[in-house]
Amino acid sequence: MTTNQNTLCFPETGKRRVEILDEMDAARAGDWDWFSLNNLTASYYGGPEVAEVAKEAFVKHIGDNVVHQTGLHPSVRKYETDVIAMVKDLFNAPENAAATITTGGSESIVLALKTARDRARDQKGIISPNIIVPQSAYAVFNKLSHFLGIGVIQMQESPDYRADVAGMEAAINENNIMLVGSCPPFPLGVVDPIAEIAGLAQKHDLWMHVDACIGGFMLPFARELGEDVPDFDFQVPGVTSMSADFHKYGYGYRGCSILVLRDEALVKWQGFAANNWNAGDYYSKNTAGSRNSGPIASTWAVFNFLGRDGFHRVTADIIKGRKAFCKGIEAIEGLEILGTPQGPHFAFKAEDLNILAVADGLMAKGWAINIGSKPDAILLMLSCHHYQIADTFLADLREVVDAVKQGSLKARGDEEVYGIY
Ligand SMILES: Cc1ncc(COP(=O)(O)O)c(C=O)c1O
Q: Among 127, 184, 343, 370, which residue is least crowded by beta carbons within 10 Å?
């Protein structure tokens, strides 16, 4: 037995189940319920019935491994096959498109980057590749490019908060392998001009990746409801690949996402094979190895439970909330919504007012919110139930803004960390 005064040692004996559960409840005392109405961060709640169906499906497969889908769990293969077919239909992908279910947006994106990198190496001889991303592209493009030895050319912010297409064209160079657009990016909720970026990609024979991790299962339904959403899927000719997260607005439990490639011929640069292993030949299209089957089971269940009309209902409620929030915020002097939000979230900044002090005030009143920078802003991410509390939030916001204007509520020092994430 090791004795160490400072660190916890491995338990010598087990505890009773009830003790453990009590301890966990105590540990969770300060946690938020992810579906709380006051939680305006990335909660992705599809309502109580959706959450229950997803949970039941998840629990059914809680001990199953996706990797064993051909042998032990053929049901999981069915879920993957069905969901891939549904997504190809939703994203207007060609018949010969290929798709891979992954553990999350990051895995979908790293696979797209790796596939583009290896194709460019083989077909164009590019050995020092780089990608060009808008300023608002999710930071995983930087992280994963770092892992893969790919350089990143990141645009500066643009006046309408969308990708700066002219800047992207000016940045194209002989080592470029990919252009990226997001629909929408995390900080802003403003969809990038995907068709223009894809047009550039075609003109310069480049890979175009659409990061639809957030909007993939919200924007198609928003369009069908008549909302103004620009083209963003495989209907746009130059789009090569798309990432979309089931564990966001697809309402499956984490972690589950999909990477769709326009042409199955690209898969040869995605997969990895090793044939010198004493357990047999190894082949995988994923970076992850063992994966819980719960996430894909919950996604399959939710897609079938909601169907197109159910997704219309939850999406309509998100949009109703977004419009109510935005209208109320725009009516408050000194606050400004950034760009024209088209997704489930949006950000607002302040003129002549410290927005971080406003954020502080809102958090003190019990709201969970995100903070953005460049410019400093408050970011609200809505689910289908949030329209119910728009008036309460706006009343609190007005009160906090008044307090900041009057000087009774001040920003904390720069050394303090604002916001939660
Ligand atoms: C726009 C966007 N892309 C990619 C990702 C990465 O997804 P994940 O956290 O599932 O890896 C996120 C995560 O929030 C995102 O918002």
A: 127
